[in-house]
Amino acid sequence: MDTAEIRRRFLAHFEAAGHAVVPSASTLADDPNLLFVNAGMVPFKPYFLGQETPPFDRATSVQKCIRTPDIEDVGKTTRHATFFEMCGNFSFGDYFKEGAIQLAWDLITKPVADGGYALDKDRLYPSVLVGDDEAIALWMKVTGLPRERIVQLGPKENYWSMGVPGPGGPCSEILFDRGPDFGPDFDAATLGPDMPVELEDRLLEIWNLVFMQDDLSAVRSKSDFDIAGSLPKKNIDTGMGLDRVALLLQGKKNMYEIDIVHPVIARAEQLTGKTYGADRTNADDIRFSVVADHVRSAMMLIGDGVTPGNDGRGYVLRRLLRRAVRSMRLLGCEDRVLPELMPVSRDAMSPTYPNLVTDWERIAQVAFAEEDAFRKTLQTGEQVALRVVESAQVTKMVTAQDAFTMHDTYGYPIDLTLEMAAEHGLQVDQQGFIDLMAEQRDRAKADARSKKGTHGDTAVYRGIFDTHGPTEWLAYETLETESR
Ligand code: ATP
Ligand code: MG
Ligand code: MG
Ligand code: MG
């Protein structure tokens, strides 16, 4: 089933069940606490928080999402992209737990002829928050599955909050067993409270149902919070990964091979003369996946109006474009690559997002100019990079000063230095680098240079950290932003 059809069926299923179909919002969040929309619920937040009255009790959408914190996983797991589409259904004080479970289960198990996805019931595993007996009972009632098939996971997986006082609630993640090729055997009844890492690709999470029911008075961490009482209006917020369901229904090993992503890999194979082999531990296969993922994310961001820059969203875009270009170089292609790759991604995505065609000239111009600028950076930086690697051979550590000079004088971003160092089996004195950056920032402040606008303060990043955990990559992003 192609992705377009999976998307269509999702909306049709929920529309038939009385949901208003709401088009995707931009990936650029209209929210001071977020750089990007990272879930389907984000555009509906004012309704969930009771700040605005929704014009409907039920809604459904397929929302464009960007998750920069997942960047390090791209290509290494089978299931993480920096851009993906989240299918969601939402209830604003209307149906609750039972309705949400029933609607989701119907869609994924319904025969194809009846508009469903016909996933094999014997391979589906609902998960609930440890001790959520109400949810366990409802899953058993709706699905007829025995109690042993329901996995109980801790709050890290199965409790949702915004990281601040306000609404919160237990989740139910629906998992699909992809079989022994993807991880060891397991016993659902004794799994948890943490999901073992080696099972995450096998027990693929496809859908998260959030039961917004609690009023939180304090949130200290994902698993440490105080429930003050129940919300007056209980809400449902769900997110099904479109690309993940496509992976299953198209019989692919990973998300980078689905119909709307793989054509870029195929083009990259032609350009590099190398063959992609879907091995998640093979450096080249990871690079092919990174190329396909980042080219798409970058294109979607430019389509939504982002331009490359040195902070906030612009910096994220710059990093995606540069990483894609550099991965192609490491695969052996030193020519300009974006004019070859991005049109392929456009053709895969434009049936759903026609702006990619109508706005193509601008999108292409922004992307290709950034590649040209980066090629110049690489030309000047490469010799210096080699000298840095040379001088780090004894200690196996790139000094903070070298990393800083690369960044400051040669425009060689820290992530590139980190990647390059890792390729040569070297560490980087990251703390020292952070300190030097901080010193530079303080100098800049002392100089009272006029400030450029940023896309928010550190609370922005704090929110992302709290939701997704820190990554080195984001840590530097924060640094960059703070330094301006
Ligand atoms: P995971 O544990 O696999 O990282 P998650 O729990 O972070 O997923 P949710 O925040 O629950 O994901 O998002 C809802 C759904 O969106 C997930 O069930 C999944 O199907 C999909 N999804 C989440 N992150 C990604 C991603 N990086 N790429 C593609 N799909 C994703
Ligand atoms: Mg999860
Ligand atoms: Mg989840
Ligand atoms: Mg995640």
UniProtKB/TrEMBL annotation:
Q: Which family does it belong to?
A: Belongs to the class-II aminoacyl-tRNA synthetase family.
Native organism: Nocardioides zhouii
Q: Residue limits of the Alanyl-transfer RNA synthetases family profile domain?
A: 1-484
**Keywords of this protein's UniProt record, alphabetized?**
Aminoacyl-tRNA synthetase, ATP-binding, Cytoplasm, Ligase, Metal-binding, Nucleotide-binding, Protein biosynthesis, RNA-binding, tRNA-binding, Zinc
Question: Superkingdom of the source?
Answer: Bacteria
Q: Where in the cell is it found?
A: Cytoplasm
Function per UniProt: Catalyzes the attachment of alanine to tRNA(Ala) in a two-step reaction: alanine is first activated by ATP to form Ala-AMP and then transferred to the acceptor end of tRNA(Ala). Also edits incorrectly charged Ser-tRNA(Ala) and Gly-tRNA(Ala) via its editing domain.
Q: Name one GO molecular function term.
A: aminoacyl-tRNA deacylase activity
Entire protein: shown range: 1 to 484 of 900
* Reactions this protein catalyses: tRNA(Ala) + L-alanine + ATP = L-alanyl-tRNA(Ala) + AMP + diphosphate
What cofactor is this protein dependent on?
Zn(2+)
Encoding gene (name): alaS
Q: What is this protein called?
A: Alanine--tRNA ligase
Q: Name one GO cellular component term.
A: cytosol
What Enzyme Commission number(s) does the record list for this chain? 6.1.1.7
Domain remark text: Consists of three domains; the N-terminal catalytic domain, the editing domain and the C-terminal C-Ala domain. The editing domain removes incorrectly charged amino acids, while the C-Ala domain, along with tRNA(Ala), serves as a bridge to cooperatively bring together the editing and aminoacylation centers thus stimulating deacylation of misacylated tRNAs.
The principal localisation class reads cytoplasm
- Co-factor binding details: Binds 1 zinc ion per subunit.
Which biological processes are named by the entry's GO terms? alanyl-tRNA aminoacylation
